[in-house]
Design brief:
Shape: globular
Number of domains: 1
Order of helices and strands: EHEHEEHEEHEHEH
Strand content: 15-25%
CATH superfamily: Aldolase class I
CATH class: Alpha Beta
CATH topology: TIM Barrel
Number of helices: 6
Strand order of the largest sheet: 1-2-3-4-5-6-7-8
CATH architecture: Alpha-Beta Barrel
């Protein structure tokens, strides 16, 4: 099932409550929250107090994306719930199997993220332990970048691997997702789409923008599918 995960990094944080309520009314499925530590990527974003406030505002699942070194140090402070999914990078300084188990002990859903330059083979040993793979379609750290079309082949590779292993694993794509590429990514096998400045936040009319995304996704399907 296709899902739209709205990136709060692109919202107007001065009006967080109003923004989240507009996103709910627009029909987004998840709220994507980028956590950056200034080391893994040269940027900082949300802290635990903001995440706590988001939980008070909404019942939507939180899609927490850890762009941090040593992610095992950061799992507990977000107080994850059973509705949340937590992704961390295979490139981070960690033992992925241990972080995956740490997330599971919180009854949350574990996911691995992969930078555009990293090979799919890096995540293969962990596929059976994961709920989702996040494939970055831009270099992580900043919004508004051009997407890297070579990632399209990686989406297809990952989808084929999941089918061969009979795994019902979600494939998320993140980075300049919009009309120019969303149908291509869907055809290749992606089903979770992080929506930022190129789509949901392209204007303040979130209801119309989410509707457009669904139209683009429907347009990416062949008749009979």
């Amino acid at each position: 099932m296709n899902k739209i995960s709205a990136s709060l990094m692109c919202a107007d944080l001065a009006y967080l409550y109003e923004e989240i309520k507009k996103l709910e009314q627009a029909g987004v499925d998840w709220l994507h929250i980028d956590i950056m530590d200034g080391h893994f990527v040269p940027n900082f974003t949300f802290g635990p107090d903001i995440v706590k406030k988001v939980r008070e505002i909404t019942s939507l699942p939180l899609d927490i994306h850890l762009m941090v070194e040593e992610p095992e140090r950061y799992i507990d402070i977000w107080q994850p719930t059973s509705k949340d999914i937590i992704s961390f990078h295979i490139e981070a300084k960690s033992k992925p199997e241990e972080v995956i188990e740490q997330i599971k002990t919180k009854q949350s859903r574990p996911a691995l993220a992969l930078n555009p330059q990293s090979p799919i083979e890096a995540v293969v040993p962990f596929l059976t332990s994961l709920d989702m793979i996040l494939l970055m379609t831009v270099n992580p750290g900043f919004a508004g970048q051009k997407w890297i079309p070579e990632v399209l082949d990686k989406v297809g590779q990952l989808k084929k691997l999941a089918q061969e292993k009979n795994l019902a694993i979600d494939i998320q794509v993140d980075g300049n997702i919009g009309e120019h590429n969303i149908a291509l990514l869907q055809k290749a096998g992606a089903n979770i789409f992080v929506a930022g400045s190129a789509s949901v936040f392209a204007s303040r009319d979130y209801l119309s923008n989410v509707s457009k995304m669904h139209t683009w996704l429907e347009g990416g399907r062949k008749k009979g599918e």
